[in-house]
Amino acid sequence: MKVRLKWVEEVSFLAQSESGHAVLMDGPPEGGGRNLGPRPMEMVLMGTAGCATYDVIHILRKGRADVRDCVVNVDAERAAEDPKVFTRIHLHFTVTGRALKPEQVERAIKLSAEKYCSASIMLGKTAEITHGFEIVEAA
To answer: How is 95-116 classified by DSSP, letter by letter?
Structure first.
């Protein structure tokens, strides 16, 4: 896996993935940026949410669960001193489907957290990671 990052100006960077996608990252105006894109550490959280959500949906579908949607809200805290690593991360999954069983969803989240999601497992080396979920019945 490869990525390329190019400095654009001030504190703006263009990241390009090997798969052909690009994301503009930028800093806040008070830091010299123009707020044109997410901060690099926000990208870390977004990537972690994407990794975990991919796993949860895949595991649920493999178990023949009728999952229709999944939204993850991530809340994180960082250390006050440099390096300002994440110290606490909470992922809250809202899973929508038909006749989903709480134990199915809980199992999928646990498997992602403990076995499959390389992003959250890596971040777990410095941060306390917790998970929560709710199930919404699809119409």
So the answer is: EEEES--HHHHHHHHHHIIIII
